[in-house]
Write a structure and sequence with these properties.
17% strand, five-stranded mixed β-sheet, 12 strands, 367 residues, 39% helix, seven-stranded mixed β-sheet, globular, alpha/beta
């Protein structure tokens, strides 16, 4: 990573430790939706839209909207504006929903946000805040892999070709001096693109020797006898890298900035509530997961998973640029122009009202 990127990261404020864990990250849209009308907005003002539609994953890395909706914090900031939500299991399907106008605001990973911005030539979305950092690990079968050098020649799962973890693993492989074809996944390491819902069974059966995956899939593999060989946070300055952003439809942002601001207030207050109420937040998160998926997480998966994720209002913009550079280096993305992908105006207004410093866009802000 470049020296400017390192300096930008070093200047970031410390992130509050996330104290929640949610369901495994899978792929394919999951149309579970809900509504939660609440009391008058905290500002007492009537907002410009009668309804706002949000999207997110039933996943640990999307804990801010899960807890924010479950605890009623988002709705409180929206007042009489109705909050509706749809959950997804894949970034591409959430971007499609945003582009189609089915949702207005979404919590999403960096790779799909970058791809959505590039494909629309910067016209359809903006990143307006951060949400989570960390929570990605390389977990292996200790009987087959005892050291990082032993990864060569083994079969390692990632969630999806070109997704955030796939790009990170390919970049790490390159750093070892090994060669892998990014399209087929074949080479000095066999990169096996596997749905996170299937990965634990593949690991148990021995069809993969390990996986570079987000939480709580990583902790699920550990519960099945796996060992954490590498935590991705150790590869980043200060241990921080973006795993989830808040994105908004450009059309909705232009038409209803007051509603976007209210959602961002709710997001910032949710992150603060998570940090201040760890036990209650963990219970709230598990309750949200059970409501959305029908299952909660047992303590042996829940506890280690939530410890590795940090909530963040700052989007960690320098790391987004670095992740895009990694995708280009891996051969999965043509060099993109990300200038303008961030519009942090409303986030910084919210942070300013809380007496907190502004977040930076690492020269990728809206011009």
């Amino acid at each position: 990573m470049s020296s400017p990127a390192r300096r930008a990261l070093a200047a970031l404020a410390a992130l509050p430790l996330l104290t929640v864990a949610l369901g495994a990250c899978g792929y394919g849209s999951q149309k579970a939706s809900g509504t939660n009308a609440g009391p008058a907005a905290a500002t007492g003002a009537k907002l410009s839209a009668a309804k706002v539609r949000i999207g997110y994953f039933p996943n640990i890395t999307h804990a801010t909207p899960l807890v924010g909706e479950q605890a009623g914090i988002l709705q409180k900031e929206l007042g009489t504006t109705e909050l509706t939500s749809t959950t997804f299991n894949a970034g591409p399907s959430e971007i499609e929903a945003l582009n189609a106008g089915s949702i207005d605001i979404g919590w999403i990973g960096p790779s799909p946000a970058i791809n959505g911005y590039v494909k629309s030539k910067g016209k359809n979305l903006r990143i307006v805040a951060g949400s989570a950092s960390g929570g990605v690990k390389l977990v292996v079968d200790p009987k087959k892999i005892a050291s990082l050098e032993d990864v060569k020649g083994k079969r390692i799962a990632t969630p999806q070709k070109g997704n955030t973890q796939d790009v990170a693993f390919l970049n790490w492989i390159s750093g070892q001096g090994w060669k892998v074809d990014p399209q087929s996944g074949k080479g000095d390491v066999s990169v096996v693109r596997t749905d996170n819902k299937v990965t634990p069974d593949a690991f148990k059966s021995g069809s993969v020797d390990g996986a570079w995956v987000p939480e709580p899939t990583a902790s699920k593999l550990v519960s099945e006898g796996g060992k954490v060989l590498l935590d991705e946070s150790t590869l980043w300055p200060d241990g921080k890298f973006v795993i989830t952003n808040v994105v908004v439809s450009q059309k909705f942002l232009d038409a209803h900035p007051d509603v976007v601001e209210a959602v961002l207030r709710g997001s910032v207050k949710t992150n603060a509530w998570i940090a201040a109420n760890p036990d209650r937040a963990k219970s709230s998160a598990n309750a949200a997961l059970k409501k959305l998926t029908g299952k909660d997480l047992p303590p042996e998966i829940l506890d280690p998973a939530w410890q590795s994720i940090r909530t963040t209002d700052d989007p960690l913009a320098a790391t987004l640029q670095a992740e895009a550079d990694h995708a280009v280096k891996a051969g999965l993305l043509e060099k993109p122009d990300l200038t303008g992908i961030y519009d942090l105006t409303l986030l910084n207004k919210v942070l300013g009202a809380e007496g907190r410093p502004a977040a930076g866009a690492a020269q990728l802000g809206r011009q």
